[in-house]
Specification:
Shape: globular
Low-confidence stretches: none
Distance between the termini: 44 Å
Largest sheet: 4 strands, antiparallel
Radius of gyration: 16 Å
Number of strands: 8
Structural class: alpha+beta
Order of helices and strands: EEHEHHEHHEEEEH
Number of domains: 1
Number of helices: 6
Strand order of the largest sheet: 3-4-8-5
Mean pLDDT: 90
């Protein structure tokens, strides 16, 4: 199956399960800290709108999503995709971090996170999408690093 060419600069990382994955360079510190904390990630992007626009420009066939409104809405937003239980756990942890507490507790305010867990006939989807403003990427990596060191100190 053909894959789309990368839009953002990427770095190859080795997941905790030993898989080689290409990760947008801005997201590398975030994923490293999430993995140190025991989270599973299934996808990430440092700017969803820009990436979607870039893929659309390089495709000969339609994406099936990614119209102008989608692209405009997602410009400047990073993405983390995690199993739903891990997403709940991450949001709960960040709700206790002063810099992120209001961002994850109060949707639709400037700087707040957008979370999407699709409803399916059997319940919540297996994966959650966490969108947050791209400028928060370094702050998130730093906050997760503090949490990771705190967890390491507790063991």
């Amino acid at each position: 199956m053909a894959t789309d060419p990368p839009i953002h600069p990427r770095q190859t990382l080795i997941t905790p399960a030993g898989e080689h994955v290409d990760v947008d360079v801005d997201m590398v510190p975030v994923l490293g800290e999430l993995w140190r904390l025991g989270f599973t990630t299934t996808a990430c992007c440092q700017d969803v709108g820009e990436a979607t626009a870039g893929v659309r420009e390089q495709r000969n066939s339609p994406l099936g999503y990614g119209g102008d409104a989608f692209i405009d809405y997602h410009r400047g937003w990073a993405l983390l995709k995690l199993p739903t239980p891990d997403a709940f756990h991450l949001v709960a942890l960040l709700a206790e971090v002063p810099l992120f507490a209001d961002r994850v507790r109060n949707p639709w305010r400037p700087g707040s996170w957008r979370t999407n867990v699709p409803l399916e006939p059997s319940g919540l989807a297996d994966a959650a999408l966490l969108h947050f403003p791209s400028p928060q990427i370094p702050q998130l990596a730093e906050a997760l690093g503090v949490l990771s060191r705190h967890v390491g100190d507790a063991t």
